[in-house]
Design goal:
The chain has 7 helices and 3 strands; from the N terminus they run ααβααααββα. By secondary structure, it is mainly alpha-helical. It has a 3-stranded antiparallel beta sheet, with helices on one face.
């Protein structure tokens, strides 16, 4: 799998999205995926090799690194991007199902297979809930795993097989902190966009139903 696959996927889903959904796609592609590939991935590339402790006790450095970085920042971001982006596959699958159903029955069953209405609207809303949910879950996971969103200059380790309290140093902590803040901010922005689009569609659907009921009553 390459990151190009996610770009193609998001570009394909873009044509079924609302205006807010298109802004979300742009934010994911430019401010998250592009920044991840071009800059962030290189910053954390050699994080284990550049993690140093002031002791040469065999195994001590590895144990301390595993304690403070149970999951690599960069791999957790990659998983977050994949989970958030592939949630949009639900919409694509539903549109493909509609198109195949029309071919199978050899007749026009929908005004447009990609129009957000009926069952496709429910699928679209579910995908928005999943995307917003994944964003929030991963933000909480980041915060819990690393005790905040700041990379410290120095961490103190006293885990076996370290014989005593050991000072360990993380490479480029300031640069990593800046990128952490940027990626967390973009993740929060995406979550807000998802919730906004969800609210917009629910309100729009509610208004349309109320108007239809009033029209029927008048008739």
């Amino acid at each position: 799998m390459t990151w190009g696959f996610l770009c193609d996927l998001l570009s394909g889903v873009n044509k079924y999205s609302t205006g807010i959904g298109r802004i979300w796609v742009a934010v994911v592609l430019i401010f998250r995926l592009l920044v991840y590939i071009v800059a962030a991935e290189n910053i954390w590339k050699y994080e284990h090799d550049e993690f140093e402790c002031n002791i040469r006790q065999p195994g001590c450095e590895n144990v301390c690194f595993d304690h403070f970085f149970p999951v690599s920042h960069i791999r957790l971001w990659a998983l977050q991007l994949i989970m958030v982006s592939t949630s949009s596959l639900l919409v694509t699958f539903h549109v493909v199902y509609r198109e195949n159903r029309e071919k199978r029955h050899n007749q026009k069953l929908y005004k447009s297979p990609g129009e957000i209405d009926g069952g496709l609207l429910c699928t679209y809303l579910i995908s928005l809930v999943l995307k917003a949910g994944f964003e929030i879950v991963f933000l909480v996971l980041f915060y819990k795993l690393y005790n905040g969103f700041q990379v410290p200059h120095l961490v103190i380790c006293d885990i076996r097989p370290c014989p005593n309290t050991v000072d360990c140093y993380i490479s480029k902590p300031t640069e990593k902190t800046i990128f952490l803040y940027f990626l967390v901010a973009s993740s929060c922005l995406c979550a807000v966009l998802n919730v906004s689009e969800l609210s917009y569609l629910v309100c729009k659907c509610s208004v349309q139903r109320c108007l239809k009921r009033n029209i029927k009553k008048c008739q």
